[in-house]
What we know:
Number of domains: 1
Low-confidence stretches: 29-42, 53-57, 180-191
Helix content: 10-25%
CATH class: Mainly Beta
Distance between the termini: 48 Å
CATH topology: Porin
Structural class: mainly beta
Number of helices: 1
Amino acid sequence: MTPLVSKSLRIAALTVGAILLTVLTLAQTSTHPSPPCQALTAKPNPLPTHKPAPCHIRLHPETSISLGAFAQLTATRIVDAPYNFTTASMSPSAGVLGTVRQSFSPWLGYSLNMGYTRATERATDNASLGSPYAVNNLSIPANIYELSLSYLAEKHVTPRLSGFVDIGAGMLAFLPEHRDAPATNLLYYGVFSPPVNFRPLGVGGVGIDYLLTPHLSLRVEYRGQLYKFADYGNALPRYLTVTSEPTFSVVYNFTHPK
């Protein structure tokens, strides 16, 4: 494993670990609310005339799993750098996303996300040099995996409709299709077998859940990923880019949302 990959893995592991530790610490504290939701009186009234104060901390967190499909749409980066690659892009593709969520209160929860898509990364050199070899393209198809952990804030708007936002960090793994066979049509580098690449990832999203039954929901959300393009161990551009993932999911709720 190269020093760059090792460093990326350490950064992502520390980031995910810090988020998980913070969420679990806050969750443990929040499950023992003080003061209680309804204050005790000296003489209990068997027929109370007032409703108890609402509880904002759930002793039993809402837990759910979901499986969805998304469209991977990555922004193309163009940088003016003569005699070198000047564009980096990713072909649009479809993917799948699995999520595990727990919500302890409207403003305290977490989600664990696992995603997969298959796309082709492309890089192109400067076409304005006037040389017969000025336009050269590099294309590397790869399987792309996501593992991320996010802080979750969720609010029930109606008995059936709830909205949420989440933000977190994780890791992307780029596994080239032909990493054990020579790649062709390379600019300046001849032939090489691109290795697996890991990229630290920032992720965030916003969406809604609609409850169909006590245990079944539909989810529509927008997810955004912030990371650098894979360079596959060569002098390819590592431009910072944003991937948009509009996602539609089916959700199973282990606990009935209140």
